[in-house]
Structure formats: structure tokens, C-alpha cells
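INFO batch 0412 | record 1 of 1 | parsing
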Amino acid sequence: MLGVLGGMGPLASAQFMLRLTLLTPAARDQDHIPALLWSDPRVPDRTAARIAGGEDPLPALLRGIRGLEAAGATAIAIPCNTAHGWFEGMQAATRLPILHIVDAAEEELRRQGVAPGPIGLMGTAGTLAMRLYQGRLDARGWTCLTPTAEEMDRLVTPGIALVKANDVAAAYAPLAEAARLLAARGARAVVLGCTEIPLGIAAGPALPFPVCDTIDGLARAAIARCHRPG
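INFO prediction complete | emitting C-alpha cells
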């Protein structure tokens, strides 16, 4: 039974459930993974908590974990990158294994045949400031190229906000431009390290270089962990 700690944001959580279903090898209802979605958009803003002294989201995250435990979950996936800044606190509070989205992204890079080397990394200002990806991937041979402060302010942060406001189509242009700028600086692929970003990137023409969709990566990790056909 997969527990999904979501609502950060709600659209990204819904997309995770969709991709979990579509990526599961199944011929009938009973071949799919039993899953529980805890979608609570009241969790305080993770980026604001990390870089602007905002309210700590950990109590709300733990409330969701306790709800999933009580409902019978046996593993947890969190389709929000920035929330993984509190991964250790969440994992320490539960006996259930929590799948780490950065590990899932690494497996997605390998699945796509992206060799260690320079890659682009897009995410919230909080995710980049906490070095959630840089710390793990740099140690494994990848070099993370990130948007400049100007590109974050002009392109990435507004693009993420548009997805959160359900204006997915308008998010494509700024997010795609940011990804292209990383590729122009030598990135072999671009990790979409915020679960809103894949929704914006999917709203327009495909980019001419590999992108690592962290929603899909986490869904594949969950399938590998939980899938028991029949």
C-alpha cells in the first residue's frame, strides 16, 4: 500500500497519481498498486520556511505521515522536491520507508542513458539553496548547473507560480527558456527538480535535449518498490 504525501502542490500530486497509474504494467484493475493520496495544501510554504524564516512545515508533514500510517500505508512517496529538505525529520518519525525523490531522479537519469557529467538543475529557490540535488549528485559524478539569480527571478519562480495557479500553458515559455539556457551552458540534460516544472514543460513543444521528470522518476521508484501484480 503506497502512501502519497501530497498537496504540495495539488496539481503535481494529481499528476503523480496519473503517472503512477499509467506507468504501472497492468492488464486489469487488480494489477495496479493500492495507493492512498493525502493531499493537504495547508502545508506551509517550504521555500519560505527555508530561506525567508517562514513557518516550519514539518508538523504538517508529520500529520500527513501519521494519517497515512493509520490508513495502512507501508511505504511513502512525496511528490514535492522542496519537502525533502525535511526528509531526515520525517524519516526519523516513522517506521515506514520514505522514497527519496533525488535518488529516484538519479535512477531516471541512468534510465535515459545520461552519463555522469554536467547537467542542468531547475527547482524552487528553496530546493537549490538546500542543495538537495547538488549534494547527492555531485558525489556521484554529475555536476549540477543551476539558473542564475536573474533567471530564477525572471523565469523559474514565475513559471512555478503559474502552474500552482493552474495556468499551465503560460508556464511553458519561461520554464522552457530557463532549460534552454542551461543546455546552452553545457548541460547534457536538465533535471526538472520541482514537481510543478514537468507540468509546465509538457504544455508546449518537446525540448531538444533530455529532461528528467522527477514526477515520473518517483512514480517508477514507487512501482519498483510496491508493484505486486494480482
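INFO post-check: The mean pLDDT is 97.
INFO record closed
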